[in-house]
Each structure stands twice: as structure tokens, then as C-alpha cells.
């Protein structure tokens, strides 16, 4: 599984570790490489790629590695964008909508309760629809927005993948924490599942591991089909 590092990425190492904890091989990918080294899936981790200059994800969108990822994602390759990675996915238009500054204008860092709304994506099949999980959240540009028509379409097509529970930490419309593309191979969310995969770390919860086991099982199923 490929894990992309842009200049300013923070969570690439934790993401690589999460991939390994799930039992897959983590392959580091550098933003200047167009070659994806034959990985079967890609994770865009969190951080501040290119310093979040102009707008989070706005420059990363034009990096050589994204050129190949966009092309392959359209062909069905699974891609997960976490936090800054989600911001990159909206900027590339692989996912609809946009991320704005949190409504209270502060950086948020908390354990966040979420509801996994669908198990019908490549990255959530190991969860059950309606399952409640808690993973860390840490960002300042986390407010998901889209026009009403797009929001209605996402709801109708079952593409709202995660919703904030208890607290909406940033003013995201309809409490949306993450969404998927139509085919379900591209998923983006603001909270950080890669920081909740081992019982000895953080709150001790492993609620985030399911993202990485989901994709691994799906890839193995595909390979054995
Ligand atoms: N943790 C992160 O990925 C931070 C994301 C983003 N740069 C923000 O602050 O909103």
C-alpha cells in the first residue's frame, strides 16, 4: 500500500505503521514521483502539504504523484485521504465539495466520535453501517461544505461515509466528517484513523484499524478472484 509524502506531510510514518499493523506492506511514495511502484492502493496522509499555502491541498493537487493517482483512481484504484489528504482529494475533484476554515476559527485537537454510515466502500467494509467509533481529530480547515444539490446527491447515493457524533467540531454541513466517490474506491475524511490502531498508543482504542484491514481484505479478495 502506497503512502504519499509531500513536503509538509506529518502523518506519513503513523500511516505506514497503521498499514503494517493491519498486515500489509507500506510503500513510501514521494510527491515528485509519477511512478507508483505498482502499489495496489494509496493513502494520502495528514499534515500541511506545501505549507497549506494558498489553500490546504491546492498546490499538492498539481504534484507529479497526484497526476498518476488521479488517473489510477478514476480507473478504480483505492485511495484514502486523511485530513490534509481529504483536502487534497476535494481540490483534485476526485471528491466533491470543499474544506473551509473551522467555523470558530481555531485549531481543534480532540478525540472525536463518529458514525460509520456505510460499509459499502473499499475502506469501510470491515465496519458495520451505523457503527460508532472514536478517533483523533486535529485540524483548522475541517469545515466540509458543498451546495445543497451535491449534499442531497451524496445522501441519496449513500456517499456520506462518516458523520460527527455528539459534537460537530467545525461547522461541517450535515455533520459530514467524510465522503466517498460514486464507485466507493475513493474515500476522504477529516479525523485520523491511523492514530488509533494500537492498544498501547493514545487512548488505547483501535477503532481506526478497520480502514486498513478493510482495504487489505478487499485487495486479497480481488487477487484471489
Ligand atoms: N492534521 C492535518 O492533516 C491538518 C490538516 C490541515 N492542514 C488543517 O489544519 O486543516
From TrEMBL:
Its EC number is 6.3.5.3, 3.5.1.2. It comes from the Bacteria. It is found in: Cytoplasm. Pfam families: GATase_5 (PF13507). It catalyses: N(2)-formyl-N(1)-(5-phospho-beta-D-ribosyl)glycinamide + L-glutamine + ATP + H2O = 2-formamido-N(1)-(5-O-phospho-beta-D-ribosyl)acetamidine + L-glutamate + ADP + phosphate + H(+); L-glutamine + H2O = L-glutamate + NH4(+). Keywords: ATP-binding, Cytoplasm, Glutamine amidotransferase, Hydrolase, Ligase, Nucleotide-binding, Purine biosynthesis. The active site is at 83 (nucleophile), 192, 194. Part of the FGAM synthase complex composed of 1 PurL, 1 PurQ and 2 PurS subunits. NCBIfam families: FGAM_synth_I, PRK03619.1. This is Phosphoribosylformylglycinamidine synthase subunit PurQ. It comes from Streptomyces luteolus. The gene is purQ.
